[in-house]
Design a protein that fits this description.
Layout: H1 4-13, E1 19-20, H2 23-29, E2 43-45, H3 50-63, E3 67-70, E4 87-90, E5 97-101, E6 106-110, H4 115-125, E7 129-130, H5 142-146, E8 166-172, E9 178-182, E10 212-219, E11 221-222, E12 226-234, H6 240-249, E13 255-260, E14 271-279, H7 282-295, H8 297-301, E15 305-307, H9 312-319, H10 324-330, E16 336-345, H11 350-364, E17 369-375, E18 380-390, H12 394-413, E19 417-419, H13 423-432, H14 435-448
Parallel strand pairs: 2-4, 3-4
Antiparallel strand pairs: 1-2, 5-6, 6-10, 7-11, 8-9, 8-10, 12-14, 12-15, 13-14, 13-17, 16-18, 16-19, 17-18
Helix pairs in contact: 1-3, 11-12, 12-13
This protein binds flavin-adenine dinucleotide.
Length: about 450
């Protein structure tokens, strides 16, 4: 149980200006922008080192106090909201960039380092290198993003989910032990997870229920000099997988996004495929564009679909990473509510996912934007169902909640798996999961978190 004595002990571990139990501070940490119910923590702590994280976890483990690791708190599905109270471990002070390995193309950062910080640091000091950025606001952290299998602008061309770009981790376990995973466990380099038994996966996709990530090794990639975009449009909802697959197979596109939204009005009814291309010379750019145009030639010659001329102001938006338009759309209803859920699914299910999303939102009378990012040269898509809402409108919040439930069910029915699912969505997934996998997850949780203190309520296997 959390007592005044616990608070005093925490203040002995972390400088007291970074520990709070003031109600107005706790309020902020009790909720996120999504529709999940708020839950108050008992206290919020901002550690500055791995050693401080270790001490806090030792204390929490002894006293059976829940601990919820938090990065930017931007996940939107309540995953860093303390469902059972306890300590929110806000990692933002652990934001140092520890190493950039220019030759072996990786960065090592602390567990609270934000996407924006690494991006800015690379642009200033290593302009020829970049990492894969999600379209989340720049305050989102690298650790928080890999902990939920996030994806971003290099996910299509460079190997998939951001969790797949992790080269190593330092993690503090619930009992305070610290472990290094990947090559860094054995040699001073953080180059890869191979050739050792791959234990990194024990902390990716687990929503902070298996340990606190205090360091991350993440892959870097060359930053080509030129960046341009082609936009392909069609009204035929069933044509999208064909167009996308043809473009993917050219291996010339860096990032491929699909969107279907009723707003702005002139786009209503159109499927829009935004194809990002990068190159190091004008010749290379022209050739890549020609290759893409050529593979779609027979389709656009029918006039049923075609490339859209992109006006300069629109192009500037498309070329941004992260896409600020997404953050703007998040508040389109005003009132700050936004639930953006995804489902990882096969590319061929995109049309059915769109139909399901439109049917669900029409039934519940809410606004939507649907879309997909292609992952790993076409191995799957991260399909998103984005539902902005006005937080002060209780009726609208309730409608979005119901739409969310229906969306999770529809995703599983379509052969997809809800991504960064809120607790109810996680339970739906677990219900459908192979019993052997379920039992293995349970055993892993028992070994890594015997006191059940790590982000309890999430991935609850009992
Ligand atoms: C407008 C908008 C656009 C978005 N676009 C994208 C996108 O393109 N791609 C994408 O992937 N996401 C996107 N997101 C979703 C989300 O913001 C990101 O995935 C973000 O990177 C999550 O990181 P965070 O630091 O905010 O995580 P948090 O919300 O703080 O945490 C997420 C989960 O990770 C756990 N966690 C956090 N830090 C640690 C740690 N150090 N150790 C262990 N566990 C930890 C938490 O307990 C929680 O379960 C978007 C969100 C918005 C609002």
């Amino acid at each position: 149980m959390f007592t005044n004595e616990t608070l005093s002990r925490i203040r002995e571990i972390v400088s007291s200006e970074y520990v709070t139990n003031e109600p107005e501070d706790l309020y902020i940490y009790s909720r996120d922008q999504g529709v999940q119910d708020p839950h108050m923590p008992d206290c919020v702590v901002m550690p500055s080192s791995t050693e401080e994280v270790q001490e806090i976890l030792r204390l929490a483990s002894r006293e059976q106090i829940p601990v919820v690791p938090m990065g930017g708190g931007l996940v939107l599905s309540g995953l860093s909201v303390p469902l059972k109270g306890g300590i929110v471990l806000d990692m933002k002070r652990m934001n140092r960039i520890l190493e950039i390995n220019e030759k072996s193309h990786y960065a090592v950062v602390e567990g609270g380092t934000s996407q924006g910080m690494l991006d800015a640091y690379l642009k200033k000091n290593f302009p020829h290198l970049k990492h894969s950025l999600p379209d989340a606001p720049p305050a989102a952290t690298i650790a928080g993003n890999i902990a939920i299998h996030g994806s971003g602008h290099l996910s299509q061309s460079q190997g998939g989910f951001h969790s797949e770009m992790v080269t190593g981790l330092e993690v503090v376990l619930s009992n305070g032990d610290v472990v290094k995973l990947g090559s860094c466990s054995t040699v001073p380099y953080w180059f890869s997870r191979a050739p050792l038994p791959d234990l990194v996966g024990l902390f990716l996709g687990w929503n902070g229920t298996t340990g606190v990530i205090t360091k991350v090794g993440i892959k870097l990639y060359p930053r080509p000099k030129l960046h341009d975009v082609l936009v392909y449009m069609t009204e035929d909802i069933d044509l999208a997988p064909e167009v996308l697959t043809r473009v993917i197979n050219t291996e010339t596109a860096e990032d491929i996004n699909y969107a279907l939204s009723p707003k702005p009005d002139y786009l209503n009814g159109f499927q829009m495929m935004v194809i990002n291309i990068t190159a190091n010379s004008e010749d290379e750019m022209a050739l890549k564009k020609k290759i893409i145009r050529d593979v779609l030639k027979d389709l656009y010659e029918t006039k049923e679909s075609g490339f859209m001329p992109v006006p300069p102001n629109m192009k500037t938006g498309f070329l941004e990473a992260p896409q600020k338009a997404l953050s703007k759309f998040a508040d389109v209803r005003r009132g700050g509510g936004f639930e953006y859920v995804g489902a990882i699914m096969p590319i061929e299910r995109i049309p059915d996912a769109c139909r399901a999303g439109m049917e669900i939102t029409a039934r519940h009378g809410i606004t939507y934007s649907l879309g997909a990012r292609i992952i790993g040269k076409g191995h799957c898509a991260m399909f998103f169902f984005a539902y902005p809402f006005n937080r002060v409108d209780a009726d609208e919040v309730e409608k979005v909640k119901m739409a969310l439930e229906d969306t999770n069910e529809a995703s599983l029915r379509l052969g997809g798996i809800p991504w960064k699912a809120e607790v109810q969505g996680q339970q739906l997934i677990l219900k459908q999961m192979d019993p052997g996998t379920y039992s293995l997850m349970k055993r892993i949780r028992e070994v890594l978190d015997p006191a059940g203190i790590m982000n309890p309520g999430n991935w609850e296997v009992s």
